[in-house]
Amino acid sequence: MRVPVSWLREFVDVPLDVTPEDVHAALVSVGFEEETIHGFGLSGPIVVGRVLEFTPEPQSNGKTINWCQVDVGEPEPRGIVCGAHNFIVGDKVVVSLPGAVLPGPFPIAARTTYGHVSDGMIASARELGLGEEHDGILRLASLGLDPEVGADATALLGLDDWAVEINVTPDRGYAFSIRGVAREYAHATGAAFRDPALTVTPEEGTGFDVVIDDRAPIRGRIGATVFVTRVVRGIDAGRPTPPWMIARLILAGIRSISLVVDITNYVMLELGQPIHGYDLDALSGGLVVRRAEVGEKIVTLDDQTRILDPQDLLIADGSGPIGLAGVMGGASTEIGATTTNVLVEAANFDPISIARTARRHKLPSEASRRFERGVDPAIADASAARVVELLVQLAGGQADPQGSRLFDVAPREPIVLPDGYIVGLVGADYSDVEILRSLTDIGGLIEPIDHALSVTPPSWRPDLTDKATLAEEVARIVGYDRIPAVLPTAPPGRGLSRSQRLRRSAAQLLASTGHTEVLSYPFVSQRANDAFGGSVPGAVPAIRLANPLDGEAPFLRTSLLPGLIEIARRNLSRGLVDLAVYEIGSVFRPEAGARYASGDLPSGIIRPTSSELADLLGSIPPQPLRLGALFTGAAIVKQPGQPGVQHGIADAIDAARQVGHALGATITARQGSHHSFHPGRTAELFFGDRSVGFAGELLPALAGELDLPRVTAVLELELGLLIELAATEVSPTAIAAYPAATQDLSLVLGAQVSAGEVLSAIVEGAGPLLEVAHLVDDYRGQGIPEGAKSLTFALRFRAVDRTLTAAEATEAKLAGAAVAAGRFGASIRE
């Protein structure tokens, strides 16, 4: 919304020395967003001149210029070269003298042209910023002006004004008017506000037929609740629009069209009520507000033929549609240069209906912007009266008693505001006087009741619907600086849930060990789901979106890996080749044969019932929480004295074990298989006997197809399942007070036996004295029978209450070896 300051001053006391920055600061303090400042960009001497004489001089280029002598109120006239021909001797014009600057910027100086020294410039309306007309110079008589020669033309034409622009949020439609912004400026500064709606006296017209016949209301809301018409006869539609009105309209972002249209736009900006004017003599009978019939058409004011939708709200007469209600009028009843009698319409239309029509026809307008945000239903009478007043004053018309008034708006329901509610909600110590003054200033009607206030919101504030919105208004009017910057104390028993804490622990542990968290889109192709969604291609069903953002990726992901692969490809294409990234998110795993769909969604204005919530939850597929990771490039970068170490399956398995450690769950790896993983470098991950994920390296051929390095390791864990199965609480391990005893154990066994299973057997047999055990060597070769291998494990033993002897450590080691021998036929390597 652009607000010319001279217009603002009519309704609120704005100091003469105020700056645009001051006005912006005041409006920001009451919740508006500052945009920019607008002006005409003129400076220097721009005065009224009178053409004393001129001599046409044909030029060799075929152009004829006029060598003019112009009186600008100085002892001697000025000689000025002018290329326009639309003036005569005696005409008063606007002269830009040397030193002036016109919009552009375009500085004016005395210069030699066409054999003369042109001592200034006679300006056109476009050169002054008053419009796009450039048929010649601006003749002040065409604007109905006869000022003194030498007078300041910028003040005469309103070109010394400026406007501030603010961003108006959708819930504050009342601020799409000078009236609304003036009231807000008064809230911010304490200046006196004068409501322009009270300066006119509405008169109810009679005798003009208007019928509201909305047979197909949207969501039960009638399309029009207010419809006021007035008639003005005998206007002179060819009269010029006053320059002060043109200047204000331009600063407000609306171009001048004609006097009658300019008046309706002016009142819309002033009071916030869109107004439409009809050529009364072009109407056929009365007006009907109705929905469009199938196949109906209308030619709108932009000369476009539009095919109407049955939900479009129309204004019609006996001839058919003559306007899209609240959006744009029809060409058949347009006011033109020959119009003498005008029907003024001020109505209030349903916001939803207007918004849908404007979007359906791709036809946004100043009227629809206001209607879809909510227009004050009580302002229609005053707005119509204001248009009539201006048509009489400026167009020479005569107000006619003919007209109509339909008003079907329910009174606002009062809101009960309990004592102490605002202070308790906002946290600021507001006095009763401040609360009463704030609610009164915004237009509320207040009545004290037992331990509360009954507050009836004003008609222009449809956003005030409950006690919380009233509390917000008090906080806004008194000042946001009064709200203390103190975080409230959380009630006992609140905070993160166990699941949230463990999920956060897993993420923080990976981040702290050099991994980077990423976030990918959940939309993938069928091929990506088949590659990573299950152990067999096509075995896992996927949810297809009805309206996908990308036609190449219409399915919801069944695995996190496709998204991580896309992120890796993007980083690799930009030269980032060493990656260790992870993501925690949901995947979508529909059950085979199940159908997931939702019917009509419940209304968003009331809380859904328990059964409605159950139906909604039943209409979506299971969404388990997972953790995925991808590793490629160097885990340790090559540097002096340190060879590079590349990422591989060991990093994926280690990341899984770190996550398990953070959750209090011991994860073990066993030889596994996956159709997209390298067959010899794939591990299935277990917590106890439950499979909780996979880790491995992608098939080299698949990695090449995906433009990834040959060795690319990936990990996917069922994080939600791990959290569910993990220990209730993760307890820290006490620092040992006694020294450890270390021993190695080498076992010879069949090459087909998994090292992880052997390690589990050793841990089980060694008992509580075993603190740490891990594989350090896998040897196959000389000295080992064919078809066998030697696995060496490093073992660390410790007791919490004493120093272990070598015999105790050996006994525990041999106990572990005995379990491995019993299960896998392992023997101790000599």
Notes on the protein architecture:
- It is a single chain.
- The protein has 830 residues and is α+β, with helices and mostly antiparallel strands.
- The protein folds into six domains: 2-40 and 162-194, Phenylalanyl-tRNA Synthetase, Chain B, domain 1 (2-Layer Sandwich); 46-156, Nucleic acid-binding proteins (OB fold (Dihydrolipoamide Acetyltransferase, E2P), Beta Barrel); 206-407, 3-Layer(bba) Sandwich (Phenylalanyl-tRNA Synthetase, Chain B, domain 3), CATH 3.50.40; 415-482, Phenylalanyl-tRNA Synthetase, Chain B, domain 1 (2-Layer Sandwich), CATH 3.30.56; 499-594 and 614-725, 2-Layer Sandwich (BirA Bifunctional Protein, domain 2), CATH 3.30.930.10; 741-828, Ferrodoxin-fold anticodon-binding domain (Alpha-Beta Plaits).
- Helix content is 26%, strand content 27%.
- The protein has 21 helices and 42 strands.
- The strands form twelve sheets. Strands 28-31-32-38-37-36-35 form a seven-stranded mixed β-sheet, with helices on both faces. A five-stranded antiparallel β-sheet has the order 5-4-3-6-11, with no helix packed on it. Strands 13-24-15-23-16 form a five-stranded mixed β-sheet.
- A hairpin with a 6-residue loop joins strand 4 and strand 5.
- Helix 6 packs antiparallel against helix 9.
- The longest helix has 19 residues, at 806-824.
- The radius of gyration is 40 Å and the shape is elongated.
